Amino acid sequence: MDIISEIREGLRKPGKSKIGLAAALGRQPSVVTAILGEGKNGKPRQVKADEVEKIRAYFRDGEQTGTVIRPEGPEPSEVSPAPNAPRFSQFGDFDVEVKGITVGGNDDEFYFNGKVSEHVRRPPGLLHKKGVFAVEVSNDSMVPRYEVGEIVYVQEKVPASGDHVVIELYHPDDETQAGKSFVKKFERRTGRRIYCTQYNPPKEIEFDTGEVKAVYRVFPNRELFG
């Protein structure tokens, strides 16, 4: 049985879900959707070697060797929906592109390669936003705000102090090629410098404005869900 079939079979088990599997992988639920080929392009995403054991461990966890019988049946759930929580029908299509990453490195840097690695669903707060795309955080320099593998939605926009941003630099040798990019917290901008900070370890980062190709503002959760 291949790993995709194992996932589909595992999801039929009581208490197992795509959301739970995504949490076990340390990823967003959209990654599980992509693995199963249920995204916009309909093509399954390749399962990475380090993800296989995590997937199998998730479906093994809590398995019983026998049948548990409760005379009075399952206890009623005390969980109630959050007030004003967006319904699934309020979300848009899987039309937000996740930009591909070619090279990872220090300080949460990566290279845009112009390719789309997958598509993720458009949150309700971004239904009418233009120029939105997503990137995957590739390093732990912004922990605890952003974990490794977390998907963030961005848009090219002038940020305000305190916004989180993705800063894309020009390639040092060829401006037509992909340059490095960094996920940071924006602090301020002068004529020649952009000043940012990171959390892990805490420090200030400076960027020369002449080397900056674009600044993308990261949408905070409150804006994603309206």
UniProtKB/TrEMBL annotation:
Pfam families listed in its UniProt record: Peptidase_S24 (PF00717)
Highest taxon of source: Bacteria
Domain annotation Peptidase S24/S26A/S26B/S26C: ranges: 116-204
Region of interest (Disordered), residue spans: 64-86
Protein name (record): Helix-turn-helix transcriptional regulator
Source lineage: Bacteria, Pseudomonadati, Pseudomonadota, Alphaproteobacteria, Hyphomicrobiales
